[in-house]
């Protein structure tokens, strides 16, 4: 199944729902960041989580999902938009606990942590919510975030299903959320179905999104958008120059004295940008004049 994000409504029941498949992008990010199996498992879940949360936003809004913990993973960051574009990084890429991947993921998070969601609504408007990790599993802790921080009744499932020797066999998730005046009982029904493995079964069986959601809530899904999921970075040479310029006059003189050039590596896509000695001197000259 191609990586995609499908958004829809169940208008008769006052619910909205999103289905995400991100298998190929999860595998791509594993190679891009050199992730060991446990780190790759957690980052795959986080990519899906970021896409699911972003799917609930308006067209131009972005979502930053950040997890911080005291375990060897240390944390991760995902940036996503409603149209399926996503990127991110892991602070501890070289984490692997052999055996059950779910237990390994729990061990990688440690015993204390926070999950925060930043909504960039454009025009300089931001909203940030944060909850402590309770379940130390991304799907239930994200569900806890919706209940505590946004106070929206939500059913959420995120799964990484192995296939043969491929630990990232199928990666995806489902979210069902109540709209004003919606049916609480159907959200509870969806929760029960997800806890019983409905999301895992849907992904493993390659069910179409509308069939998977209908099986959980018993109603037809009215699709309003279907788009490709793509790991896409927004870095550029100009942004790299701006980052180096932000070192200030003293910082630029220090780089010129010791390195004579600057190399900026994007933490999202690992692209490398070289700022030459000539460019550094020109930056320093302009700052000294200012």
Determine the fraction of residues in helical runs and give it as a percent range. 25-40%
Principal-axes geometry comes out as globular
Determine the number of helices (DSSP H or I, runs of at least 4 residues): 10
User: Regarding quaternary structure, how should these chains be classified?
Assistant: single chain
Structural class call reads alpha+beta
> Per DSSP, what share of the residues sits in E-state strands of 2 or more residues?
25-35%
Count of separate structural domains: 2
Distance between the termini: 55 Å
The strands making up the biggest β-sheet line up spatially as: 7-6-3-4-5-11
Sheet with most strands: 6 strands, mixed
Average residue pLDDT: 93
Radius of gyration equals 21 Å
In CATH, the homologous superfamily of the largest domain goes by the name Hsp33 domain
Examine the secondary-structure arrangement and name the CATH architecture of the largest domain: 3-Layer(bab) Sandwich
CATH topology of the largest domain: Hsp33 domain
What is the number of beta strands?
Answer: 13
List unreliable stretches of 5+ residues: none
CATH class of the largest domain: Alpha Beta
Q: Topology as H/E string?
A: EEHHEEEHEEHEEHHHEEHHEEH
């Amino acid at each position: 199944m191609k990586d995609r994000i499908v958004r829809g409504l169940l208008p008769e029941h006052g619910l909205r729902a999103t289905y995400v498949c991100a298998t190929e992008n999860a595998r791509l990010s594993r190679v891009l960041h050199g992730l060991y199996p446990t780190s790759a498992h957690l980052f795959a879940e986080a990519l899906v989580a970021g896409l699911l949360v972003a799917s609930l936003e308006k067209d131009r809004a972005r979502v930053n999902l950040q997890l911080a913990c005291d375990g060897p993973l240390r944390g991760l960051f995902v940036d996503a938009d409603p149209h399926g574009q996503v990127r991110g990084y892991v602070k501890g890429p070289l984490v692997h606990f052999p055996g059950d991947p779910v237990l390994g993921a729990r061990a990688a998070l440690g015993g204390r942590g926070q999950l925060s969601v930043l909504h960039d609504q454009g025009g300089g408007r931001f909203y940030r919510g944060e909850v402590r990790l309770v379940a130390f599993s991304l799907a239930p802790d994200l569900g806890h975030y919706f209940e505590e921080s946004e106070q929206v009744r939500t059913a959420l499932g995120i799964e990484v299903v192995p296939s043969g020797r491929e630990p990232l066999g199928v990666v995806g998730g489902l979210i069902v959320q109540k709209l004003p005046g919606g049916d609480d009982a159907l959200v509870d029904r969806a929760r029960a179905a997800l806890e019983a493995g409905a999301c895992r079964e849907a992904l493993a069986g390659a069910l179409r999104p509308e069939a998977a959601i209908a099986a959980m809530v018993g109603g037809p899904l009215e699709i309003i958008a279907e788009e490709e999921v793509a790991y896409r970075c927004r870095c550029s040479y100009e942004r790299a120059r701006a980052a180096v310029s932000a070192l200030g006059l003293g910082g630029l003189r220090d780089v010129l004295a010791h390195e004579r050039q600057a190399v900026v590596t994007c933490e999202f896509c690992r692209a490398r940008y070289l700022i030459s000695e000539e460019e550094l001197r020109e930056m320093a000259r302009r700052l000294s004049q200012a």
